[in-house]
Each structure stands twice: as C-alpha cells, then as structure tokens.
Specification:
Layout: E1 2-8, E2 16-17, H1 23-26, H2 31-35, E3 38-41, E4 44-47, E5 52-56, E6 65-69, E7 76-77, E8 87-90, E9 106-109, E10 125-128, E11 151-154, E12 167-173, E13 187-192, E14 208-211, E15 223-233, E16 236-247, E17 256-261
Parallel strand pairs: 1-6, 2-7, 6-8, 8-9, 9-10, 10-11, 11-12, 12-13, 13-14, 14-17
Antiparallel strand pairs: 1-5, 2-3, 3-4, 15-16, 16-17
C-alpha cells in the first residue's frame, strides 16, 4: 500500500476543514498535484501545502493508498469525510466530524476525537484509540437518519447521545457513556462495555443495546423480560448474564431490545 504523509507546518487560529484529504481524492495524483488540493480555513479556500508538508507516493486507486496525518490535528475537522476506500491514520487527536458520511475504508485515530465522530456513517471502519465527544454515529441536527452502516470502536469514554437515530451498523464503546446513548435508535447494535449514566435507549424503536457495566438509572418505558445467559446478537456470541428489556413503550409501534449485565444492576429491575 502506498503511503502519503502529511505533516502540519503551522497551527491555524481558525479551524481547518479537510474533507478532500482522503484516498478518493488523492488517487491518480502526483505529490505535486496533491499539494494543490483545496482545503478550508474558515470561509477561505486554501491549498493543502499552505498548512501541510506532503511527501510519499500515491497510487492509481483509493484502496491502494494510506494517508498518515503526522502531527496535531486537534483543530482539524472533517477528516475522511465521505471516503470509500483506503486508510487514514491520525497520529494524535482530531477535531469534529472525523469519518463524517464515511462509506468504506478505515480511519484510525491514535488519540481522542471531538464530537460527531462517524456522523451519518454508511460503511467502513472508524477506530478511536482514545475517547470521543458527544453524538458519535449520530444524525445531522434536525434529521432522523443517523449512522446506517459500518463499524465504530471507541477505546475510551464517550459523551452524550451517542448512536442517536442509529439505523444500522455497530458501535462498540470500551469505556463509559454519558446520558442518553441510543436515543431514538431504529436499528443496529450499540455495545457499551463500561458504565452508563442514564436514559439509555430513550424512544428507541429498534436495534439492540448491550451494557456490560453499571447503569445508574433506567427509563420507566421499558418492559423487563427476565434473565438471559450468553446471548447472541446478529450472529455474535456475547458471554455473560444479562437482564433483558424491551422498549421504549413511551412511543407507539416497534421497540428495541436492551441487555444489561446482572452484576451491579439489581436496582434497575422492577
């Protein structure tokens, strides 16, 4: 796989947006042509080379390209937006919207990510080695269509309202989640291996949520169905002993399923 390394030269006082930094755009271009790719500084269009050193070797197809962002990207938004193939590795933190509308390929963030990671994601894989902010895998503001495909892994903690309007795909959080994970969820799978604050699955109409840690409080609109051991979700075996609930009966129509580990969660069983 060909590698293209882009290294930040200076830190912009205004956040940069780099939706064109992806294998789909770099494919078939020379390094000199890649340096001319347009990015955004606020409402200004600038060239990639104004803020980044660019080196390496390109390839003819996106699937043959790995882009390495080697430096601080904590003020850089929209990395990998809409990408369909190839790989992006960020050696540090990133700002908002990493993996926005992603359709294929893989993004690895070796640090933390700000809010809206994987928003409206449709395919591919997004892996964040640190923590992430609010609205992971969510919809746009005012829309009802969140992530519909692909796979997101967060190795740390996450913020509020992750998997909002989740309509497909899978999100795994290795750490803890704040309020309202899986709110308005329609389909897909959300696994939280740590603890959850409250309001899990509020107004969900489909899909499956699994909480392996402690849930501080649970909504009243869920019906308790009993205890299950070593569950299977979408063909995946998940060992453990879980309380099973269905809901949210605060809304009419179809409902989703929530499994919560028995250990430490006796307080949520009616």
């Amino acid at each position: 796989m060909s590698e293209i390394i882009i290294t930040p030269k200076i830190q912009s006082n205004v956040p940069l947006e780099i939706p064109n930094v992806k294998p789909d755009v770099f494919a078939g271009k020379s390094i000199d042509e890649i340096k001319e790719v347009e990015i955004y500084q606020g409402n200004e269009i600038v060239k990639l080379s104004e803020f980044f050193e660019v080196e390496g070797e390109s390839a003819e197809t996106p699937g043959e390209i790995k882009i390495i962002i080697d430096g601080d990207a904590s003020n850089i938004k929209r990395i990998g937006q809409g990408m369909t193939a190839g790989e992006i590795i960020v050696k540090g933190d990133v700002s908002m919207y990493v993996g926005l509308d992603m359709k294929g390929g893989k993004i690895i963030v070796e640090g933390n990510a700000a809010s809206w990671a994987g928003q409206t994601m449709k395919g591919g894989e997004l892996e964040i080695m640190g923590s992430a902010g609010d609205y992971v895998g969510s919809s746009y503001r005012g829309d009802w269509r969140g992530m519909s495909g692909g796979f997101i892994t967060i190795h740390g903690n996450v913020g509020y309202e992750i998997a909002e309007y989740l309509s497909g795909g899978k999100i795994v959080v290795k750490g803890n989640a704040n309020h309202m994970p899986g709110i308005h969820m329609n389909s897909g799978v959300l696994i939280i291996e740590g603890n959850v604050t409250s309001r899990t699955g509020g107004e969900m109409s489909g899909g499956t949520i699994i909480v392996k840690g402690v849930m501080d409080e649970f909504l009243a609109g869920f019906k308790y169905l009993g205890i299950e051991r070593d569950i299977q979700v979408n063909g995946e075996d998940i060992p453990g002993v879980f309380y099973k609930f269905t809901g949210d009966y605060a809304i009419k129509g179809a409902h989703g399923t929530v499994y919560v580990a028995v250990a430490g969660n006796k307080h949520i069983v009616p």
